[in-house]
Specification:
14 strands; four-stranded antiparallel sheet
Amino acid sequence: MQFTDIQLVDSFTNEKDSHGFIKFEVSTMDSFFTSGQLIENQVAIFFDFNDPILTNTVKNYYLCKDTIIEVYASICEGEEFEGYGNNGVFTDYFESLYGCDSTRVLYLEILNEDHKDCMEVNNENLIEKLNTVNIIPNPAKDFFEIVSDKLNISSIQVFNSNGSAVKDFRNIHGRKNFRVDTSLYCPGIYFVEIQHENGEAAYKKVFIVD
């Protein structure tokens, strides 16, 4: 790429006006890249006959990026978290719409029955109340609703399969249900973190379809 007679001011004369920006788009050949492949770009800028000035290396991922999401949770004996009821590290694998892998690693701790958070396990304790959080409908298309039977919701975060936050709802006080509009969401797997006013959190998975 060559620019003739660009007349770019040097930085000693005017540092601010010495900056130039180029925006361009490159189309790839069919099957040249695979989903999630790392693409590194660097540019050499020549001024007259001087040695080139090398830019920093920019890293991008084709279509999507493989991600790992870590979740730490604790429950009382006899309870379950997303189908798991034992101490340990559990790994679930999902594939995004574009073919990248999303990995969720769950670090689950089972608390003893004499733990302060489990003392009322037989008397409608907060952990039991937390497990009554549901997402309906699931799979969802245009919206889904978070329903908490007993605990008030304080905030909600929605993450895509790459681990990026796509929506953040704050200061939701005094409500046990909340509707999330997904009409503009791409189809795929999303993770929802629900914070309650008592400080406890619930983690749910929702599928968005066309």
